[in-house]
Amino acid sequence: MNRALPILRRLGTLLAVIVLSTFFLSCLLRLLPTDLVDMILSFGTPEEKAALRRTLYLDRDVFTSYFMWFKDFIRGDMGIIYGTGGGETVWSHVTRSLPISLIIMLYTQILALVIAVPLGIFTAYRAGKKSDRIISNTLFTASSVPNFALAFLLIIVVGVKLKWFPTLEYIGFKDDPFQHFKHLVLPCVSLGVGLAASYTRLLRTDVIAALKDDYVTMAASKGLSDSRILLTHVFRPASVTLLTAAALNMGALIGGTLVIENIFAIPGFGFEIAYALATKEFVALQSFIAITAIGYVIFNVTADLLIGIVDPRTRGSR
Amino acid sequence: MSNNPMLSLRDFSVSFDTARGPLYAVRNVNIDVADGESLGIVGESGSGKTVLSRGAMGLLPKRAAHRSGTVIYDDHDLSQAPRKELREYWGTGMAMIFQDPMTALNPVRKIGSQLTEGLRVRLQMNKRDAKARGLELLHRVRIPDPEAVMEKYPFQLSGGMRQRVMIAIALACKPRLLFADEPTTALDVTVQAQVMQLLSELRHEMGMSMVIVTHDLGVVAGHTDRIAVMYAGEVVEIAPTKRLFANMQMPYTEALMKSIPRLDAPSGQRLPVISGRLPDPTQPETGCSFASRCPYVTDKCRASTPPLVEVAPGHSYRCWFPIGGSR
Ligand SMILES: Nc1ncnc2c1ncn2[C@@H]1O[C@H](COP(=O)(O)OP(=O)(O)OP(=O)(O)O)[C@@H](O)[C@H]1O
Ligand code: SF4
Ligand SMILES: [Mg+2]
Q: In chain A, what are the domain boundaries?
């Protein structure tokens, strides 16, 4: 079977999704109640307005203008932020804010997995016992709290009352590693608890199923130690679902991160989007949303590819 | 080496906790397996063969399965042994070929790693030696192109190949006693014969004892020294193979015998199947467990349980009205 084919097909899908979603966006921009150019240059001369109209390709038909925009977009030329007097490019905002959001998402995933892996395995081995019931029910309750509500709760209790962790601002790792992590504890916990709960539940189910499987008994019959069986025979197959869930959740996590950044005043990508929305920076917004869509698609495709690597049964067949 | 049997089960019983109360899967079984001997355990589906062999090895889940009686392996009483101690015997002392090679091989790990892990952990071989030995094992179970098979996943192999891989894994650490649980059920008829032949050859080569579990008397006929017939968790007849075929006493053995497929039978002819079903293992009845299906049943059979009686050295059965006797 040709291995490259499914990957090529997936890349094709990826491109189609990105083009469709950004094209849809650029149509929306034309449908705004106020003319985009009038909005940006409310007091400009007709000449200035005409020039801007050309820069934004608004003087062309929808398809041409989209094509031109897309060409600029993939070159990293995303226009400028008009509110700052035109001094800053959209791209500079992207490069400044996007890494912060990605870091938050990465830490959140790591945190969720670090919580879920031992708990999932532990509760599976204790399935039905008291310790399993307590942990499973607690996690279930915790996961039913929306993450923004959890964020406010944490800010009030852990941040303001107990003063254990800061509740505002972002510190770069290079500036101060300790403060960097300290500032990200509450945002990542707010985002990660729900994920951890769902990962734990998935892993618990899978480990329980794997433990009943003959290949685990077979591994035991070779005289392997329990810990070895757990790692190589139980966890590996069970981790397929977990990994799938983790990768697919990257997409869902984008939304949560955008909200949480605004609560904790972290200058990430979500903060930029909210800011662009509030200040009517629609040109920037179009690129921001296109990037979000691309991120979403990339995460999902990566998820698929990763599953193929971990679970050989799916390789080449999808 | 002592003259004692390699494996000895005394009054061995296994029950499971189920939603419908205790399920008696194996009841008061007494079986010995001598050094180098090949014993067949035959019975229809659900008669307790798998539970018996896993129970003897100690492989049943501790929480759900209750064992009683004694298991003596090589003069060591393993009935109460903790898992940690049993592990010392698994792989090297006793090994098992599992019923279904599709589910018994880990689907996401390569054949090579599943084959060599026992060698590396139990025999402390290094990676290179383990691989060399793995290739040799695959070669021995007649797998063509062992190098390539080491790199494959179970789903990439045919049923016959998977079964051979299982055999190779079970034999990896040269066990002294091998349990083969329906080693050929998942295979088609021509491959069945080949695999049985292979097992017999390997047993002789390695001087191993073997317990072959099957629902098909025909499969074990030419490959065992003795056969134990199981019904509803009990051994209902046990005899040297030749004697059993010539001189069976128990009506259930007779029924099993009649259901062996014969090569000379006209094709398309349906085999007589034993009508009726096994009794419910959660509802132990008094009397002979085969009474509900036995063509020779009388009131006495229903009223009291026939004891295991010995007609000849090594030949015992459980029946009030044996076939050989006067009826
Ligand atoms: N883990 C378990 N929990 C509860 N009951 C079980 C369990 N394992 C087996 N049993 C029951 O024990 C009885 C004997 O099962 P066993 O698997 O030993 O039969 P078998 O002779 O191997 O049949 P087959 O030819 O289908 O493999 C059956 O009634 C089965 O339902
Ligand atoms: S004891 Fe009676 S019912 Fe049982 S096998 Fe013998 S004849 Fe049949
Ligand atoms: Mg079985």
A: 22-77, 91-314
pLDDT value at position A31?
Answer: 77
In a domain, B159, yes or no: no
Q: What is the 3-state secondary structure (H, E, C) of chain A?
A: CCCHHHHHHHHHHHHHHHHHHHHHHHHHHHCCCCCHHHHHCCCCCHHHHHHHHHHCCCCCCHHHHHHHHHHHHHCCCCCEEHHHCCCEEHHHHHHHHHHHHHHHHHHHHHHHHHHHHHHHHHHHHCCCCHHHHHHHHHHHHHHCCCHHHHHHHHHHHHHHHCCCCCCCCCCCCCCCHHHHHHHHHHHHHHHHHHHHHHHHHHHHHHHHHHHHCHHHHHHHHCCCCHHHHHHHHHHHHHHHHHHHHHHHHHHHHHHHHHHHHHHCCCCCHHHHHHHHHHCCCHHHHHHHHHHHHHHHHHHHHHHHHHHHHHCHHHCCCC
| Residues A31-47: tens digit of each pLDDT | 777 777 777 777 777 88
> What is this structure's pTM?
0.78
Give the dihedral of Cα atoms A305, A310, A312, A313; nearest 10 deg: -80
Name every chain A residue with its beta carbon within 8 A of the beta carbon of B183. none
Eight-class DSSP state of B47: S
A281 close to A82: Cβ distance less than 8 angstroms: yes
Instruction: Considering the domain delimited by A91-314, tell me its CATH architecture.
Output: Orthogonal Bundle (1.10)
pLDDT digits (tens, 9 = 90+) for B246-303: 999 999 999 998 887 666 655 555 556 677 788 888 887 789 999 999 999 999 999 9
Residue of B nearest to A309 (CA): B108
pLDDT of residue A298: 82
- The rounded mean pLDDT for chain B is 89
pLDDT at A258: 85
Cα of B50 from ligand 1 centre, angstroms: 7
**Domain extent at residue B66:** 7-102+177-262+271-317
B10: pLDDT strictly greater than 50:
yes
Contact B59 A220 (CB under 8 A): yes
Check CB contact under 8 Å for B83 and A226: yes
Residue B68 lies in a domain: yes
| Number of domains chain B contains | 1
Q: Do the Cβ atoms of B159 and B185 come closer than 8 Å?
A: no
Residue B51 has pLDDT above 70, yes or no: yes
Structure tokens at B84: 């940690």
